[in-house]
Backbone:
């Protein structure tokens, strides 16, 4: 005679609640604590770390991902390398360090009159904009961000303002960009361009650059659909556009785009051209656009890979610049500095040499035994007490263990190493344990083993993706979830997910619910509770 099992749907209320943390306050500090604080009142300084130092000699004619800028007189350039800033003749030669130290300095750019240099530095503990004299003296902090990233500084043509990208993190750890203006002497700044989705924005805006007449501010914007930023998009499509923002009216328009996108807007000093980068197949290509006719010209096809399909947290490429006469573009690529003449596309190498000694703080190293015979496990999963309270079964490092409460003795539940073990659960009488397994090649099973240990018997009839097995009150059946694979696990044996019941003897296995989770028996063998978004009752006959 068949007996009906009633499956009762649990109604789960999802509420938002604030739980105030328990806090302990100490009214009076001890004398020892006050003395310790007095000894440790020296402010931490990025530029002056403590610890063991090592001198490293550098003598190189190549650099990696160097941002550069041309002096308004066209005679010298500045560039960054390994967190330091250097200057050298635009024709090449020995590079002279302007900023050296343990702090990280980058993206230096000359003021329009050539007397000042704006640059990024983390010397105050966070990347911010600083301004120094052209010879590297008298650095002054301009932005004072403590929670938002700052990068890609660029001067306004009148030398009064510096535009930057301010990275703001919202619902993810990707700092979506905003464009801000700061006076060259400092201040709180003014937001020019907000993210498209307010506090929930994940799309990047960066690469600000002024037009030579100061009327417009160009920048690069992610123009893909939706607010969520994704990894590894197809960069040969249109991921980024160059936007033109009118500083008088606030109006903006998509200025340069199309297949392969457009990043790093760099207008020529005479205002006739816009240099920029776009992707063609696997290559990043340097282009210029005639701003009167709209005609594009390909200048150089061997640039390093830009950051379009990644995120560009410090801009989408190492920044390049025009010569003051608007005849050449000077850029970094393939470890070298090069100059391309826009008229005939001829590329010339700019030879340079960096010769410097740097102090490197030695890393703190602790000897670690990578394969010890024993290890103290810091995290356990699915700890379950036996009905009598004398044993606890749990998972650690992919295997199930049993701990005897009174003696503290711990042992493996099984002795196999062919698969990992998950979701242990005792039978109501405490004599058996059911659990699920996983193997990347053989997929998963549900098994039953005696509580004292053993081999474990497979009760599922076919491989699959199984979890949360639990016994019926009489110990004759096990209910469990079956879910779909794919993504990082095999997609095979995923056609019929849901809640299943199997006989502990392994003779019968049936799906009883198509949509549900966290299923378990109640006090009786004929009633099952589960969680679902559906309503009503479902009946299953054994």
Residues:
């Amino acid at each position: 005679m068949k007996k009906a099992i009633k499956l009762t749907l649990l109604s789960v209320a999802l509420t938002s609640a604030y739980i105030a943390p328990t806090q302990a306050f100490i009214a009076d500090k001890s004398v020892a604590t006050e003395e310790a604080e007095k000894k440790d009142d020296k402010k931490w300084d990025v530029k002056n770390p403590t610890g063991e130092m090592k001198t490293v000699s550098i003598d190189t004619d190549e650099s990696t991902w160097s941002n550069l800028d041309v002096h308004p007189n066209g005679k010298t350039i500045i560039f960054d390398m390994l967190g330091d800033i250097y200057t050298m003749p635009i024709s090449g030669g020995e590079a002279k360090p302007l900023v050296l130290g343990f702090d990280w300095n980058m993206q230096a750019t000359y003021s329009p009159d050539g007397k000042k240099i704006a640059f990024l530095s983390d010397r105050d503990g966070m990347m911010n904009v600083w301004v120094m004299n052209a010879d590297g003296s008298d650095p002054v902090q301009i932005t004072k961000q403590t929670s938002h990233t700052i990068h890609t500084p660029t001067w306004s043509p009148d030398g009064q303002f510096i535009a930057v990208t301010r990275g703001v993190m919202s619902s993810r750890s990707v700092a979506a960009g905003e464009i801000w203006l700061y006076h060259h002497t400092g201040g709180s700044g003014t937001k020019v361009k907000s993210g498209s989705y307010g506090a929930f924005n994940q799309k990047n805006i960066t690469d600000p650059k002024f037009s030579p007449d100061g009327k417009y501010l160009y920048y690069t914007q992610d123009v893909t659909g939706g607010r969520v930023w994704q990894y590894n998009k197809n960069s040969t499509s249109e991921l980024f556009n160059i936007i033109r923002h009118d500083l008088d009216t606030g109006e903006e328009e998509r200025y340069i785009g199309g297949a392969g996108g457009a990043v790093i807007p760099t207008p020529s000093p005479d205002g006739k051209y816009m240099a920029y980068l776009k992707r063609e197949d696997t290559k990043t290509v340097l282009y210029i656009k005639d701003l009167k006719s709209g005609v594009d010209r390909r200048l150089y096809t061997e640039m390093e890979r830009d950051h379009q399909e990644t995120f560009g947290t410090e801009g989408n490429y190492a920044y390049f610049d025009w010569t003051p006469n608007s005849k050449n573009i000077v850029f970094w690529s393939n470890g070298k500095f090069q100059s391309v003449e826009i008229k005939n596309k001829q590329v010339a190498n700019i030879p340079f040499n960096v010769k410097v000694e740097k102090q490197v703080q030695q890393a703190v190293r602790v000897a670690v035994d990578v394969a010890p015979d024993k290890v103290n496990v810091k995290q356990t999963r699915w700890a379950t007490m036996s009905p009598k309270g004398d044993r606890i079964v749990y998972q650690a490092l992919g295997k199930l263990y049993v701990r005897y409460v009174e003696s503290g003795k711990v042992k493996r539940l099984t002795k196999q190493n062919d698969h990992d073990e998950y979701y242990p659960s005792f039978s109501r009488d405490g004599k058996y344990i059911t659990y699920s397994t996983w193997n990347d090649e053989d997929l998963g099973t549900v098994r039953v083993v005696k509580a004292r240990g053993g081999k474990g018997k497979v009760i599922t009839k076919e491989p699959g993706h199984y979890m949360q097995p639990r016994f019926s009150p009489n110990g004759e059946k096990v209910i469990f979830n079956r879910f779909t694979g794919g993504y990082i696990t095999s997609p095979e044996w995923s056609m019929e997910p849901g809640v299943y019941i199997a006989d502990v003897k392994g003779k019968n296995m049936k799906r009883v619910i198509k949509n549900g989770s966290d299923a378990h028996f109640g006090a009786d063998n004929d009633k099952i509770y589960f969680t679902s978004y559906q309503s009503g009752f479902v009946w299953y006959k054994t």
User: Anything to note?
Assistant: The chain has two domains: 53-361, 378-541. The first strand starts at residue 4 and ends at 10. Confidence is low (pLDDT under 50) at residues 8-32. The chain has one helix and 43 strands.
